[in-house]
Amino acid sequence: MAKIEKVSPLAPASFPDIPAIKGVKFLTASAGLKYQGRSDVMLAILDPGTEIAGVFTSSSTRSSAVIDCEEKIHLKHSSSGAAIVVNSGNANAFTGSRGKVSVEAITSTVAEVLNIPRSRVFSSSTGVIGEELPHSLIIDALRKMVADKSTQDILEAAKAIMTTDTYPKGSVRKVLTDQGEITIVGIAKGSGMIAPNMATMLVYLFTDASVKKDALQSYLSKINERTFNSISVDGDTSTSDTVLIAATGKSGIRIEKNDKNFSQGLVSLMTDLAHQVVKDGEGASKFVEINIFNARNNTDAKAHAKSIANSPLVKTAIAGEDPNWGRIVMAIGKSGAQAERDKIKIFFGDILVAEDGWVAPNYSEELGAQYMKNTTIKISVDLGLGVANTTFWTCDFTNDYISINADYRS
Amino acid sequence: MAKIEKVSPLAPASFPDIPAIKGVKFLTASAGLKYQGRSDVMLAILDPGTEIAGVFTSSSTRSSAVIDCEEKIHLKHSSSGAAIVVNSGNANAFTGSRGKVSVEAITSTVAEVLNIPRSRVFSSSTGVIGEELPHSLIIDALRKMVADKSTQDILEAAKAIMTTDTYPKGSVRKVLTDQGEITIVGIAKGSGMIAPNMATMLVYLFTDASVKKDALQSYLSKINERTFNSISVDGDTSTSDTVLIAATGKSGIRIEKNDKNFSQGLVSLMTDLAHQVVKDGEGASKFVEINIFNARNNTDAKAHAKSIANSPLVKTAIAGEDPNWGRIVMAIGKSGAQAERDKIKIFFGDILVAEDGWVAPNYSEELGAQYMKNTTIKISVDLGLGVANTTFWTCDFTNDYISINADYRS
User: I need a surface site. Which of A57, A100, A231, A396 has the fewest CB within 10 A?
Assistant: First the structure.
């Protein structure tokens, strides 16, 4: 089985044109951790006054970098600068007490060279689990890149955090407020081990808006639930998932809690990045949107959506362009959430496939088979039980997924 | 993508030599439901005095045959005979009100031709979901096979219930009691949509012991939990899963509740059949045993075991013979059950792989890689938190799984 090197067929045509955010500088370097001939360390330098919020993996075996971020994220801080440092190629997860040593060594170095407190340096590591991180390589690279002062654009930052990703992921939204325009930008990585409750997914968001720490955390946690926590590639959850948002305030425009425009802009940006992560799902050939309507409650809605999204039988049927709606019935049935057979309606796009506990009278296999040829597949299920709705995104399950993952380390 | 026709490399060398059970007769026929040139209807005729117990899928979208069985299984009954009728090729699941009509038509026909009450006829259907069952084909076949009176051995019965199975599954155990020897035999089918809480799995067990109905149900429910509810192929749960046990009593030997010998015999038989189902997992190339030791409680133990067993990343690593224990750490972390990183011990067979939150000092990648070449892979996890243990069985996840399932219906 050989590694698949081609770019995902679902990749966007090009990386978007993302403007610089005042108060954020990116540096990248090649520390040679795993990959040759590409950058694998990214440093984002954040000006004094920046507020940072974050959400992290729920895994009980989460990495030392995640634990370190969690400890720092809610600390009160002076108006010093801050930094985010990320390496790809090694996750520094399940590396015992050495894991913590590496995190401290890296964040201390960043703190020293940028002259900021270590409590303001957030780090992430992504890649293989269980192998000691050769952090001296990263430290050497960090010292050199800061001495060189050659800043990069955000595209280079997006590239430096990639692992099995086949394309860099970035997005930008402009939000008009009463006081003027602010900008939110973001980069993401992640193509395997993607599941709700955070994935092998690293996401860094930056805005020039001025947002108080509590409000920033509230926006992030709430919107994360319906964006990055509503996607899945394989149902596996990483030890390292991290989403950080940094608000530099350099636009001079203050965003308060519950600002509709800011919220909408952030939802749109995070949804875009979440879709880009799914579209780079290992081996993906189809992008799948699952809508659950009229579930008894939100928990049930998400349970049904996840059960469909994570079912290998549903995902392989989609890969084979087989309108096998019986497998959707199976996935609803096994979810553990409430469903009544004869109230369920199933749709492919706008096509009513099943109702009254059976195939719909006007549905034909040809209609379904034709629909399945699309690259984006929308599956909707109306449970007819309550008023809770949810949307979830995933990809199909192809031979390439197996090939990529059966020899990831070889 | 082409259907894989080869026999599973994990198949036993041959079907076991299974003696006839007094009071049980098998008939089979080709009704031509889906498959050509093979039998697809099985009828087991059970003598008067037979007690029957059953366990069924927990799916909320379970089939009409399952609902019909559930309604009958706890009914009091006269000493009339009984029957089990099974068809393969069509699951008669999610077929609306027609589903029930088909079940009634089939069970009524069996009741009529065998002159037994319809309440003593148990039926199962397995195959594609959502397509109307052409039950008249089955009824014609049933009338003909009963008129012909040409009984078959249990191997033919095992063959008639197969769908994507690559080999027939059967087992036998003899149990010595104070009063003499009794025999328990069984057949099973199922190779995809296999998951705990019952799978696309049909299992029929027969014994010449005399066991009261309540005791029989108690044995079955209890042992089912640690056998058929402790296996998984793809984590998907079928709408049709059924395990029935029929005790004809023809040996004249009475088995009471909590008989150790009978219980051990039944555990051994059901474990054997459960393993055979896993070993015919679609595309399987490795048989995987997962042992969880010292979990906080049984629920946690099973949650960890299932999380490892159902993880696509663990299963693909095993397919690739990659000793990627980091993915086991990930699966423990995402299970939702309690784990403390630094207390976890992970073993491949007898090889200690990880402890104290990291790779074990004496472990080497070469040791792990060598172990992964085995056909049977044992993964053990000691959580060091309590005294609850569990064992779970699954198979690996190969390209063939995708190929089989991406065009099951084409």
Answer: A100
Please state the pTM of the whole predicted model: 0.82
Count chain A–chain B contacts defined by CB atoms under 8 A. 231
Sheet harboring B202-207: ordered strands across?
B51-56, B242-247, B202-207, B180-189, B169-177
Domain at B98, CATH number: 3.60.70.12
Total structural domains in chain B? 2
Q: Rounded CA gap, A264 and A4, in Å? A: 37
Whether A11 maps to a domain, the answer reads: no
Report d(CA B92, CA B59) in Å as an integer: 15
Question: Which tokens in the block code for residue B95?
Answer: 């077929």
What whole-number distance in Å separates Cα of residue A387 and Cα of residue A384?
8
Interface confidence (ipTM) of the complex? 0.73
For chain B, give the percent of residues with pLDDT over 70.
93
How many angstroms separate the first and last alpha carbons of chain B? Answer: 10
Residue A3 lies in a domain: no
Answer yes or no: do B89 and B124 share one domain: yes
For residue B212, the enclosing domain spans: 24-279
Mark whether B316 is an active-site residue. no
Q: Of A236, A251, A279, which one is at a domain's C-terminal end?
A: A279
Q: Are A391 and A291 in contact (CB under 8 A)?
A: yes
In this predicted model, what pLDDT tens digit does every residue of A8-38 receive, in sequence order? 888 899 999 999 999 999 999 999 998 788 9
Residue A334, min C-alpha distance to chain B (Å): 5
Q: Do A354 and B238 touch (CB under 8 A)?
A: no
pLDDT > 80? residue A235: no
With beta carbons less than 8 A apart as the criterion, state whether A393 and A289 touch: yes
Q: What are phi and psi of B267, to 5 degrees?
A: -60, -45
Q: Which of B162, B145, B148, B167 is nearest to B204 (CA)?
A: B162
